[in-house]
Write a structure and sequence with these properties.
The protein has eleven helices and seven strands. The protein is α/β, with parallel strands linked by helices and 336 residues long. The longest helix is centred in the first third of the chain and has 24 residues. The protein is globular and about 50 Å long. Bound molecules: thiamine diphosphate.
């Protein structure tokens, strides 16, 4: 089935809007970092937005995503309001974690956003557990699990993919191969040609694809989801991309980037690429494009204003919601 063929002009324009909004959001928080207000240390996803947007577009509300550090687009597509995300970034009570955490390690169970662990790679086995729960409950939902090339070098990757393969779990492993694991370029932590072929060792398909083309990502993920919903098990998708910014905003420019390398990737930037595809089909002219960008700026402005105007959580809440209220011994964060 060709899933891209079935997208309507409105769907395609909406994908463009989501890419632009994700980029705008990330650019703004990176720009605000260090100037007071923003307490989340931004780990920018600029350059690799097509992966999260392409993978999450078309997911059901009941499908779950396990975010990576660079899946701002997943929160946006899954419908976590930008003002709630921004409030979390400012540590305000109106954020998803009521000021207890930023958008790193934030969850939104109603929208199917799972809570990661903060330990690179260990989210993979948590996501596999969520897929196992779907299977045990006989629900035809899927889990989309995002992680980087560095995470794929940890033992959790092997344990998670092996388990998911054995039990044919409904999960799509989306590996964001952006060429770096923190400071370490790919060639220094990987002697292989590609990650996708590892899937063969776990008994399911693996595919390496252009992670900067939102429609390529969408097609591959939709195919994998259809396999997963049909009970045929997981797929590993290695999405090749590049991140423009440093690992995170408080780092010195630790790796000297080759200007030719940056120029190479800028020519493949997911946003102008989709704009060109839409323009070719007569779906987006210059005026539309400027209007999408202006709307994204206005939405992020409103989110920043909301976050700045929101209060910090009251001190009395410090022990609340830290433990499961279902455990009577731990209610209110205190052992009785
Ligand atoms: C177990 C563990 N080791 C180290 C870290 C610190 N750390 C945070 S992100 C990161 C790099 C992850 O690289 P990759 O998975 O390729 O994702 P990317 O940052 O490139 O998107 C590291 C080493 C961590 N969070 N957990």
């Amino acid at each position: 089935m060709d899933y891209v063929e079935q997208l309507t002009p409105e769907n395609l324009k909406e994908m463009y809007r989501l890419l632009v909004l994700t980029r705008e959001f990330e650019d703004r928080i990176c720009g605000l970092w260090g100037k007071g207000g923003v307490i989340e240390l931004p780990h920018g996803s600029q350059g690799q937005e097509a992966i999260a947007v392409g993978a999450c577009y078309g997911l059901r509300r009941t499908d779950q995503v396990m975010p990576s550090l660079r899946t701002r687009g997943a929160f946006i597509v899954k419908g976590v309001p930008t003002k709630v995300q921004m409030a979390g970034i400012y540590g305000k009570v109106t954020g998803a974690a009521r000021g207890k955490s930023t958008t790193h390690h934030m969850a939104d169970p109603q929208r199917g956003v799972l809570l990661g662990t903060g330990l690179i790679g260990s989210d993979i086995t948590v996501a596999v557990g969520a897929a196992l729960a779907f299977k045990l409950r006989r629900e035809d939902n899927v889990v989309v699990d995002f992680f980087g090339d560095g995470a794929a070098q940890r033992g959790d990757f092997h344990e998670g993919l092996n388990f998911a393969g054995i039990f044919k779990l409904p999960i799509v492993f989306v590996l964001e191969n952006n060429g770096f694991a923190e400071y370490t370029p790919l060639h220094k932590h990987f002697a292989g040609e590609e990650f996708a072929c590892r899937a063969q060792g776990y008994g399911f398909p693996g595919l390496r694809l252009d992670g900067n083309d939102v429609l390529t990502v969408y097609e591959a993920v939709q195919q994998a989801i259809s396999r997963a919903r049909a009970g045929e098990g997981p797929t590993l998708l290695e999405c090749v991309t590049y991140r423009y910014r440093s690992h995170c905003e408080n780092q010195r420019p630790e790796y000297r980037r080759d200007p030719d390398e940056i120029a190479f990737w800028q020519q493949r930037d997911p946003i102008p690429r989709l704009a060109a595809q839409l323009a070719k089909r007569g779906l987006l002219d210059d005026e539309d494009r400027l209007s999408v960008h202006a709307q994204a700026r206005a939405e992020v402005d409103a989110a920043i204003n909301f976050a700045e105007a929101s209060p910090f959580p009251p001190a009395e809440e410090v022990g609340e919601w830290a433990y499961s209220p279902e455990d009577p011994a731990l209610v209110g964060g205190r052992r009785s």
